[in-house]
Design brief:
The chain is α/β, with parallel strands linked by helices and 204 residues long. The chain has ten helices and six strands, in the order E-H-E-H-E-H-H-E-H-H-E-H-H-E-H-H. The site of adenosine-5'-triphosphate (ATP) has 19 residues, from helix 1, strand 4, helix 5 and helix 9. Catalyzes the reversible adenylation of nicotinate mononucleotide (NaMN) to nicotinic acid adenine dinucleotide (NaAD).
């Protein structure tokens, strides 16, 4: 059913697993851009992550649900994990637009991911449909981002808004490595997500 919202955030990611870096970036964007809701959308089969075996979408979706439960502004959607084939952001944004007609959409990404945006499918249409909030994460300074965007048309560049978030050097890669090596992951991600990983034996 279509819903009325003025400003809506989308946080996309593989979320294998979701961690405080994602949550801090989304909450920062929610506050800075007065978003009424942020929908976390775990990717089904990300076209760019073909090298490594990605956890079952079901696990990633449940961990995302567990992670957002304590924030009344956060929600999840399984549209990507249910869609067959590769996940393209363009299809997701089109679908979200149909669900929330008239809402201004803010797609929240890390500055590393936004640097790849130029390789994304239908990037021009994407930039027409939504704003991109580029959260800086360690190692991806904003100056770098501006230089990389120098090549693209100014009307599209203005759709990409840099946002400073507290530098959290947390990544899913690091968390997976820690689990594998038996090092602690406590305080890097919400406790229910940690419990889920340990109970299901993920990343062993
Ligand atoms: P991986 O290490 O497997 O690539 P990841 O930690 O980068 O995982 P993703 O699911 O790939 O997590 O990221 C989803 C989105 O969240 C991307 O836009 C990414 O740039 C952003 N992101 C991830 N970690 C952080 C962080 N610590 N701070 C800010 N943004 C982040
Ligand atoms: Mg990543």
């Amino acid at each position: 059913m279509a819903q009325t919202l003025k400003r809506l955030g989308i946080m996309g990611g593989t979320f294998d697993p979701i961690h405080y870096g994602h949550l801090v970036a989304a909450e920062g964007a929610r506050h800075a851009f007065q978003l009424e809701k942020v929908i976390f959308i775990p990717a089904g089969r990300p076209p760019h992550k073909t090298g490594r075996k990605i956890s079952d979408p079901h696990h990633r979706w449940i961990m995302t649900e567990l992670a957002v439960a304590s924030n009344p502004y956060f929600d999840t959607s399984s549209i990507e994990v249910e869609r067959p084939g590769y996940s393209y952001t363009i299809d997701t944004v089109r679908e979200v637009r149909n669900l929330y007609p008239g809402a201004e959409i803010f797609f929240i990404t890390g500055a590393d991911a936004v640097l790849e945006i130029l390789n994304w499918k239908n990037v021009n249409e994407l930039l027409e449909m939504c704003w991109f909030i580029a959260a800086t994460r360690p190692g991806y300074p904003l100056g770098n981002l501006k230089r990389r965007l120098a090549g693209i048309s100014p009307e599209y560049v203005k759709r990409i808004i840099p946002m400073e978030v507290p530098a959290l050097a947390i990544s899913s890669t690091e968390i997976r490595a820690r689990v594998q090596e038996g090092r602690p992951i406590k305080y890097l991600l919400p406790e229910p997500v940690e419990a889920y990983i340990l109970n299901r034996g993920l990343y062993k």
